[in-house]
Amino acid sequence: MPLSSDLWQAHHTTAVACLNHPFVQGIGDGTLAKAKFAYYVGQDAFFLEAFARAYSVAAAKASSWQMFQTFHALAAGVMEELNLHQGYAQDWGVDLRTVSPGAATRRYTDFLLSTAWSQDAGVTAVAMSPCMRLYAFLGQSLAQTQPAPHAYSQWIDTYSSEQFEPLAQQLEQLVNAQATDSPLIHTTYGYAMDCELAFFEAAWQEE
Asked: Please, what are the domains in the chain?
């Protein structure tokens, strides 16, 4: 089994907990309170900026030109996601220029950037892979059950799309090619998955 698949299966329970979280289920059926989604949009935009920076740092450490290009292509995908969030922000009345990161957001971004600067590109790919694979999993799962179009349908459409899945696969290919199975790798992947669940919980708790 490829390392990326082994890591995903090892932490699949956390992925299912994310799917079943009331915040994600509220996106799925359209019942999520608008204030909670607006908070999430601002926090996720801050997170995605750090995510793009981590890709860029990893690219600078890439051991081959092909790997360098892949990291930059993935960063371009994040930029497209940020453009989507700009649209969300306008729709939900969120001024992204004034967003301050919450504790869960800062915990996650500090972890990603610290990993990118201190570890090799393979470990950084491992740290970033849970986000991509999880969102593909959530989007695809919700797309199978969502009712008639609602306020959050675009979110589901984005992460269940044929365009997003290849990005998750590209990053997993880097994990398989560049990372070596070790306790550090499993700890890194698991920590990122825990950060994902905490991110949804923080948005859910927002009043």
From this structure: 3-205 (1.20.910.10)
